[in-house]
Each structure stands twice: as C-alpha cells, then as structure tokens.
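Hi support team,

I'm filing this because I wasn't sure whether my run with FE2/S2 (inorganic) cluster finished correctly. The job status page said complete, but I'd like someone to confirm that the output block is well-formed before I use it downstream. Pasting the exact inputs I used:
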Amino acid sequence: MAEHARLICRSDELPESGKGIRFQVERYGRPVPAFVVRYAGQVYAYINECKHVPVEMDWMPGEFFDISHNYLVCATHGAYYSPATGLCLGGPCKGRSLTVLSVTEIDGQVYLNEQEIR
Ligand code: FES
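And here is everything the job wrote out:
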C-alpha cells in the first residue's frame, strides 16, 4: 500500500448506491468534511461541499443519493450530481463539479490517496 494511503472503511460498508461514509481530510491546513459512496460497483469520494453554497450535502448523515439512487443530491436546494464524476447535472450550480478525492479499493478495503488532495 502506498505511503500516503489512508484507510477509510471496509468495502462491505459501502452498499451499491446506498449510504456513504463520512470522513474528514485536511485541506489548506484545516479539516474539511468528505464522503465516499459506491456507484455502479466503483467507489467515489468527494469533498462534502455543494458547489452552489458551501454547505454539506447529505440530507441525513451519510445519505447522499436521491430517491432514484442514480444521483447525489444536495439537501439544501436540490442540486443533483453525477455520482461517477461529481458534475452537477441540474440545479443552481449546473456545470460545476464537486471536488474529487482519489480513492482506491484493494482487498476489501477503501483507501484515500492523501497525496492527491488539492
Ligand atoms: S446549497 Fe446545494 S443546491 Fe444550494
């Protein structure tokens, strides 16, 4: 495992298009909220901050998917994002993207690649 890989959770803690795992990353010298979800079999992680107004997105802790389970949705004004790219597909910040974090799934564990945080 790479030196800067940090264990976030077990793979079986991330159900397909279901509840995500919240965690924190250090960015510009301060802790900021982040999350990881599983979608179409892959894991994806983002800074937990909507691109419309800088608020956390989950409508309940760890609940990021909309009712269709096809999009990540912001609880405040309903912007919806692609789970696979973080691109806002509809809502007040359409065309902008969530901040992507690099995660890797190996041997039943999900790791954050910390050296790639920007
Ligand atoms: S704060 Fe997320 S859509 Fe407005």
